[in-house]
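Q:
Just now I want nothing more than another pair of eyes on a protein record. Here is the record:
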Amino acid sequence: MENFSLILAIVVITALAFDFTNGFHDTANAMATTISTGALKPKVAVAMSAALNLVGAFLSVEVANTISKGLVDENGIRPEVIFAALVGAILWNLMTWLVGLPSSSSHALMGGLIGATVASAGFGAVHGDVLVTKVLLPAVAAPVVAGVAAMLATRFSYGIGGTADGEATRKGYRAGQIASAGLVSLAHGTNDAQKTMGIITLALIAGGAIAPGSNPPTWVILSAGLAIALGTYIGGWRIIRTMGKGLTDLEPRQGFAAQTSAATAILASSHLGFSLSTTHVVSGSVMGAGLGRKGGVVRWSTATRMVVAWALTLPAAALVGALAESVTDLGDWGTAVVAVFLVGASAAIWKFSRREVVDSANVNAVDGTEEPAGVVTAAIAAVTPPPTGTLTVTEDLTATIPAPAATDTAAPAVPPAATV
């Protein structure tokens, strides 16, 4: 019993560590555009996001129930399986954070859980219908829907505000950005903090601490909310730079359109119990907002790397989770080996990240290598209607009148009058 209690405590601590990495990994989802447009100072932005993440954790438990009750079979799942799943999720989060890629913490967690469960109990222990309807389909549909909505909202905002005073318009949209960023933070806490609640609840059920089918206890909700809030406050500056500057260049009204579209999609999905990737949604809305402005550029090389990371997240985390489960299945010493490996690998990644520090002071810096507009961007920009208002054309007539020919010889001097 003492050994079992110890492993259960290790699982809970590891789950909260994952929640912490989820917080700093996904800070960019709420605050990257707000920071990049200058609507909020970096440290103020992450502090506000952290507080609203904590509030959002208490709004619903539908997503937590999807993780704890629907994705895998509760019967036969040991705490060691959940520990292995968390190892896969944490390592994938840290690797993608190191290279500045906004991959999905949600899919990393679910991939690790699926891989560890399959290694322990076989494919039959994974509920395929829940995986498809509440994980895979939203992963594909959500960024597309949010991107289209953000593009249309951006075009609409430029259409109705084309003749407005520039500075007054920017101030108004910056205020709107702050409000919409707060809404995204609230939505992020509602969706992402619940995933850790679900995984801890599943561990408690597997360990016999609570009855099968139970909702997350209050202390689980509070601890998960605090862990993700603390991680958010630390700030995942590398990913904030990618989302705010590396993917596209946003003006305040584009940032407002992107964040509002993302928050709407995330809150709706949380209400339906979809374990949505907030990273996918926000990335899609940022790209949509970039395409919505005439002359806007989406850096497709960065977008392509992001999509590749998205596609690799589930299988990569599942593979690590399955390998970790194979080692923990050898006994207590196997669990200890996996724990030591997790701590050592995490420390090595952090130390490697110190070679090039990205923080609140340089988060808006760019490397000077900007990608030109691609085929898709150019095509969409070409059909963007011109802004409303009167267009004044001034012809430069001097361009059509040839300049007098220059001469290198001086005019002959006039001879003096003859003296009689």
Observations:
- The radius of gyration is 28 Å.
- Residues 367-401, 406-414 have pLDDT under 50 and may be disordered.
